[in-house]
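Could you help me review a protein record that somebody else here produced? What it holds is a sequence and that sequence's fold in token form. I have pasted the whole thing underneath without changing anything:
=====
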Amino acid sequence: MYHCAVHKLPQSVLAYIRRHELLRAGDRVGVALSGGADSVALLRILLELRHQLGIVLSVVHLNHQLRGAESDADEAFVRELAGTHGLELHCESADVKGHAAKEKLSLETAARQVRYKFFEKLLAEAKANKVATAHTLDDQAETVLLRLLRGTGLRGLAAIRPKLQVEDVGEEVCGEIVRPLLAARRAAAAEYLHAVAQPWREDESNQKLEFTRNRVRRRLLPLLQKEFNAAVVEKLGELAEIAHGEEEFWNRECNRLFSKIVSVSTPGWANFYYTAIPNAAPSAIDPAVFAKAKEPGPAMVNLTVNLTCLNALPLGARRRLIHSLSAFGIPLEFKDVERVLYLAQTEDEKQIHLAWGWKVVRHRNELQFLTADLRSEERVPSSYEYVLDVPGRVVAWEPRLAIEASIVEIAQGCNREQLIDASFAQRGLLLRNWRAGDRFWPSHSSQPKKIKELLQDRHITGSEKKRWPVVACGEEVVWLRGFGVRRDLQARGDTGILLREAEEE
């Protein structure tokens, strides 16, 4: 009975592959193999199914170089497993820590970026036309919960998609990333490996409770299963499936509504950037404005929304249409969409300001979204300030940063140097840009120093330096990006506040 139940897994995976059209005969599939149980199970299952599917398999491995000898041992295990089954191996190493430091990212986010860049490279070079990753139903449930906790809409609830198209540098589709195990439980994958006597590698970082996903995995989900619904993982997976279908409908509907209700135009001052100005002397273009226009930032376009048509729509459609404007680089969270809709229906206000220099103006029967005028404004404002609740999460659009604040126990394995004293939870924290005169005391320094000098020492310059983020309590900077928690304000008791750059899902 045990073996019968276990061996149903490959056939259930086959049914899922066919239902979602993940793989077709002739596909060259690179299996992303980390060495962990889920990815090893995926490889063994696809080996079992390859003749039925008519696919050619290879193995894909990226050594993240995060765990020293353990990472090298993972790579050796993958090489041996690929060799045992006579599969071609596509293997590279990457300095994830270096990438995280350079791009100012969390290790998890940096690892994901580097990994998917590797997949995209393999697809663009036609080494494979599909890359299969080992995301399971448990991963899906965790992702849905994480997004619920952080705040999300239907798009976020769709979580991990069964397949994802990948484009090359010419914006042509060059392949897909597929998730054949997305309907399978993690425990079933491990049972299958036991049944076929296949060993795997364990990653100790999956046990560390300082990572939010690990706390959801090891604490929240078991609690929900025990106290509320034993099938909560399956129910969250169903929610993701429903949300995915709803998203497909609303994407098409928003495209239809957009063409009827919204018009796009180029600001008069920005014509020089998109088209040559006829008979214009070179001196007619302000070099400073041209330099700003070349900086990364939102689209330099104005959008006009017909208010009569907008206000005639149901509330859900109005929200969707306004949120779809974020494709032009307009930062729109739920609270921003609600402010815009209020402006669209009231005479109390004539305009509101959004992040990244965007302004929304109500004019007669129109709602105008106006990009920053670079003749007098910055491409992306260098000054910003956001309230950071504890626990909570906030997105600062100007430095492209999301910060999570959570209360953790020292016993969870967090170093005190990573934690702000718990007393700050009630004192109010702000995520903002650093300001002239701000000082900070790094952990391994003998005394505080001006933030200006600390950034200069790190060769952080220009607009990046202006927008460099800090977390402050009143006039005191308690956290500085790239430096951590201020030395004299670190946790003293059994608990502390962990500030970390939020993981992108």
Summary: Residues 1-6 have pLDDT under 50 and may be disordered. The longest helix spans residues 232-261. The chain is about 40% helix and 20% strand.
